[in-house]
Amino acid sequence: MNIARFFANVIKWLRGHNCGLLQAMYQQGKLVYLDQERAVLVFSTAVAVPILTQPRHMQDGSRAFQQVAGHAVTVEPMDKNDPRVQAYVKAVLMAQHNRHRLRASLSHQRHR
User: Fold this and answer.
1) Partner residues linked to 39 by β-bridges
2) Phi/psi at 7 (nearest 5 deg)?
3) 60, 22 in Cβ contact below 8 A?
4) For 41, phi and psi rounded to 5 degrees?
5) SS (H, E, C) 22-38
6) Helix 55-69 and helix 20-27: axis angle, to 10°?
7) What is the distance between the alpha carbons of residues 59 and 75, in angstroms, rounded to a whole number?
8) Structure pTM?
């Protein structure tokens, strides 16, 4: 499942479970990183991160991600200016590049 579809399913789950504020806040953000343990959400509004890092919202967000992923996921809301955001974006780009290279190599080997 691609990351955009995954995030849409998280938002859909929140909508169906009376988490309206969290749903509205998540719709303003972007899921930039997702692995087996962590989901990094980036927000351009300064008020989003302090609100989303409140314990209740962290619990509800983690629960929504867990329901969609099928396992526990730690949600990490970040401001777009947080220097860690670029590291996560770079990790995603590197992973995509490596997957592309692997597919090309496997395809080349099959056609030999």
Assistant:
1) 34, 75
2) -65, -40
3) yes
4) -110, 135
5) HHHHHHCCEEEEECCCE
6) 80
7) 9
8) 0.81
Contact between 42 and 100 (Cβ < 8 Å): no
Polymer length in residues for the chain: 112
Read off the DSSP letter of residue 82.
-
Query: Which has the closest alpha carbon to 41: 2, 89, 5, 1?
Result: 89
93 is written with which tokens?
Answer: 């780009």
Q: Tell me, what amino acid is at 19?
A: C
pLDDT tens over the chain, length 112 residues = 689 999 999 999 999 999 999 999 999 999 999 999 999 999 998 899 999 999 999 999 999 999 999 999 999 999 999 999 988 888 878 877 666 565 555 565 665 6
State the pLDDT at residue 99: 64
> Residue 77 pairs with which residues in a beta bridge?
41
